[in-house]
């Protein structure tokens, strides 16, 4: 009897250490039947403490998202690489040179819209990572990754959000990775 109780305690304790299955939500918009071919991938936005979601996290989420969308048939343009005005570097002889010009992401919304038309894009993809504060009593965090593809006229093609938990045996980094993969898979399966 004692041996059976010990095994029950071990089994139940093991079940408590497992993180919940990620939860995905997907919505098809009015433009779902008219998907864009060429989309401009906007920079990943993090709504969290920068120590939890820094530039390396943003790059990892951006690369995973963009690769999956390319496999799904989209042609991706990296917004960070589009120049609104030609960048010119002036050698000042100092350690830092002066750079004139501006990037797509530094442009006004009207300039961005014109650039999108000029490069032949017919849609954009946005990605947002949100990380909650700690939850008591296990000090876990909820990580949500949200992606959306919109046509240039603003019509939603599709939206996907996935939530994963850190804590127990998963770090915030692992929860970001899990939520990103879940959001991508749930959106590209349809």
Short overview:
With 190 residues, this protein is of the alpha/beta class. It has four helices and nine strands. Strand 5 (83-90) and strand 6 form a beta hairpin.
CATH homologous group name: ABC-type transport auxiliary lipoprotein component
Q: H/E element string?
A: HEEEHEEEHEEEH
Please write the CATH class name. Alpha Beta
Q: What are the segments in which pLDDT stays under 50 over at least 5 consecutive residues?
A: 4-14
Query: Span between N and C termini?
Result: 51 Å
The percent of residues in helical segments reads 25-40%
Percent range for β-strand residues: 25-35%
Q: What Rg do the Cα atoms give?
A: 21 Å
> Which class do the helix and strand fractions yield?
alpha/beta
CATH A-level architecture = 3-Layer(aba) Sandwich
CATH topology annotation: Rossmann fold
Total count of domains = 1
Average of per-residue pLDDT values: 81
The number of helical segments is 4
Let me know the number of strands: 9
Summarize the main sheet: 7 strands, mixed
Overall body shape: flat
Describe the structure.
The chain has one domain: ABC-type transport auxiliary lipoprotein component (Rossmann fold, 3-Layer(aba) Sandwich), CATH 3.40.50.10610. The protein contains four helices and nine strands; from the N terminus they run αβββαβββαβββα. Strands 1, 2, 3, 4, 7, 8 and 9 form a seven-stranded mixed sheet that branches. It has a two-stranded antiparallel ribbon with strand order 5-6. Helix 2 runs parallel beside helix 4.
